[in-house]
Amino acid sequence: MMEPRPAASIQDIDNQELENLLSSLPKERGIMSSYTYQFQGFWYPPYALQGIINCQEEFQPRENDIFLVTPPKSGTTWLKAILYALVNREAHPPQDPHHPLLTKTSHQLVPFLELLNPSEYVSVCNSSDSSTRILASHVPLGTLPKAITGDSGSFKCKIVYLCRDIKDNFVSLFHFGNDRMKTSPISLEDAFDLYCKGISPAGPIWDQILGYWKESQKNPHKVLFMRYGELKDEPYIQLRRLANFLGIPFSQEEENSGLVDVNKTGTFVEGSNNSSFFRKGVVGDWKNCLTADMASRLDQITEEKFRGSGLSL
Predict the structure, then answer these.
(1) Which DSSP letter does residue 142 get?
(2) What's the CA dihedral at 104, 109, 110, 114 to 10 degrees?
(3) In sequence order, what are the residues at sequence separation of 6 or more whose Cβ sits closer than 8 angstroms to the Cβ of residue 248?
(4) In the sheet that 134-137 helps form, which strands lie side by side, from edge to edge?
(5) What confidence tens digit (pLDDT) does each residue in 104-116 have?
(6) Beta-bridge partner residues of 28
(7) Per residue in 13-63, pLDDT tens?
(8) Sheet strands side by side (includes 35-39)
(9) By C-alpha distance, which of 166, 146, 142, 162 is closest to 154?
(10) 83-105, pLDDT tens digit by residue?
């Protein structure tokens, strides 16, 4: 694993320094970008590295901040919408004809930390409680700013981590990557080989998942570990679990009114135009893309990586 890059002043990080950094890092063909670079032990597209460095050095969390972390293509859009609706349900009830989710996407409402400029950190305002910001990220636990995780695991805010079946994640990454790289698509076989070697966005995915899993076992009041399949199969149970973790449980009146039922748009909000939440997020969709040998290989790697951890997906 690479040693972390020594801290540098944010004023000194310019395009030339980023180019110099990239030239010093291990480089491979990417699944979702033309190339990917290994930084602090994990792989990232070049456009993400500047933001990662920025937030590691500049971001200051608030005690009530909520972070949604996922590997790319693991239900991020869906859970962003759920989280936003859940946190803001008093100010914006599900029946609100002017609910923000009716006119904006969940990515607009819940930004990725690593895609923000440092000057935008303090201006994020997406909760009715001014002391709470909802932010998202794809980065591993060890790459989050130390201001969030603390030097000894003393988390400054709450983290909700969502992951999905490894095979489904790979297939979703592959299709999304080829949609983005129409002029230079990667073959299924080449993408699969890279993925199995751990060369995927914010991967190795097994290492990222294990990092958050282990922390959730040590620090369950600060890190909530969620599985995409369970969220789809038992939304009522998982939604209550999420609300309880955030300290905003559903009242008996809310439960009796059916508020906890997640509708087909993926949120509590009827009429949301984000119907794509469910469009491709099918559990078991890998069966339409992978051969039996491919599926077996990923299962074997996953079993080896997770052995002894108590984790299953």
Answers:
(1) G
(2) 90
(3) 86, 87
(4) 134-137, 66-69, 158-163, 223-227
(5) 999 999 999 999 9
(6) 36
(7) 467 888 899 999 999 999 999 999 999 999 999 989 999 999 999 999 998
(8) 27-29, 35-39, 42-44
(9) 146
(10) 999 999 999 988 888 999 989 99
Structure tokens at 228: 């995409």
Catalytic residues: 138
Residue 107 structure tokens: 């990515």
pTM recorded for the entire structure: 0.89
Q: What is the pLDDT of residues 291-305, one digit of tens each?
A: 999 999 999 999 999
Please identify which residue in the block is written with the tokens 């996407």: 105
C-alpha distances out from residue 97 to 54, 103, 241, 260, 266, Å: 38, 10, 27, 19, 17
Per-position DSSP letters for 161-226, written without gaps between them: EEE--HHHHHHHHHHHHHHH-TTSPPPHHHHHHHHHTT-STT--HHHHHHHHHHHHHH-TTTEEEE
Amino acid 140 reads: P
Residue found by looking up tokens 């339409």 in the block: 288
